[in-house]
Amino acid sequence: MSHLEKLDLYQTIINELRPFEGEMLKQIKEFYRIGLTWTSNALEGNSLTMSETKVLIEDGLTVGGRPLRDMFEAVDHAKAYDYMFTLLGNKEIAEKDILYLHKLFYHNIDEEFAGTYRDIPVFITGSNYPVTKVEDIQSEIEDLCRWMNKERRKYHPVEFAALLHKKFVFIHPFKDGNGRVARLLMNTALIQDGYLPALIPPILRIDYISLLEKAHEDDRPFINFILERELESQKDFLRLLQIPLPKLGKDNNGMKIK
Q1: What are the CA-CA distances from residue 55 to residues 60, 76, 124 (Å)?
Q2: If we measure between CA atoms, which residue out of 152, 45, 121, 128 comes closest to residue 167?
Q3: Do the beta carbons of residue 92 and residue 147 sit within 8 Å?
Q4: Is 179 assigned to a binding site?
Q5: Cα–Cα distance between 11 and 17 in angstroms, integer?
Q6: Which of 18, 98, 29 minimizes the C-alpha distance to 57?
Q7: Is 236 helix (H, G, I), strand (E, B) or coil?
Q8: Mean pLDDT of 85-101
Q9: Handedness of CA 49, 178, 145, 6 (dihedral sign)
Q10: Is 176 annotated as a binding residue?
Q11: Is 183 annotated for ligand binding?
Q12: Once rounded to an integer, what is the mean pLDDT over residues 116-131?
């Protein structure tokens, strides 16, 4: 059974549990608010633990001994996460949304560059590929937005989200925070199509970065990586609700799949 077939099977089970309303919806949103904020920041070197992130975001309690920047990153990423859910209705992502997500996340880090495309050249440490030139950022973002509007329905929703992540991070339009905005955009696309947020834990950082680098030549492994992360979100969600996971038989290698 392919990744997409497994995803669709789990998604069918999750859809049968809908609609999520009231306290249930609140709990789901808060669970992923903490999880996405912590994992996305941790991938970039933020020192807060998941527990510290939870206490800071939910209770407003600062964490002694942690850098002020790390706490700003957590609180403001959570605000950007909340903004994602305002975009559910129209099922599209506009340039203004990209800029606002960055502004929400970055305004306490560097107000001058928050929600503003970079005006300096940058490069990604360890990468063999250049990012977009300053003078081409605006046009490439506009191309990306046109691609989202015209091509979205040609892909499976999770494949589209993975490609959106890849395309955005290759442009690298901001001075800093591009990875976090890429993951916010990816997850905005996922929740717009009724999928759960896909979390990338810091333990997978090396794989994640390596597959993004390889995606310059072949993006299938990176797409499969994101499909796997979404599948794990689906499994975790069903376990939290104590819903039995389906038995999926065997994969192409004869191994049992649970």
Answers
A1: 7, 14, 33
A2: 152
A3: no
A4: yes
A5: 10
A6: 29
A7: helix
A8: 94
A9: negative
A10: yes
A11: yes
A12: 92
Strand partners of residue 250: 256
- pTM for this predicted structure: 0.93
- With beta carbons less than 8 A apart as the criterion, state whether 131 and 123 touch: yes
Question: What pLDDT was estimated at residue 3?
Answer: 84
**59: annotated binding-site residue?**
no
Place of tokens 């992130």: 53
Rounded to the nearest 10°, the torsion over CA 106, 109, 114, 119 is -130
- Per CATH, domain 3-118+132-240 is 1.10.10.10: no
**Cα separation, 206 vs 186, whole angstroms:** 19
Active site residues: 172
Tokens of 80: 């950007």
The closest alpha carbon to 102, from 87, 124, 84, belongs to 84
Peptide bond into 19 cis (omega under 30): yes
CB 202 within 8 A of CB 39: yes
Among the listed residues 183, 193, 225, the one whose alpha carbon sits nearest the alpha carbon of residue 32 = 183
pLDDT of residue 130: 94
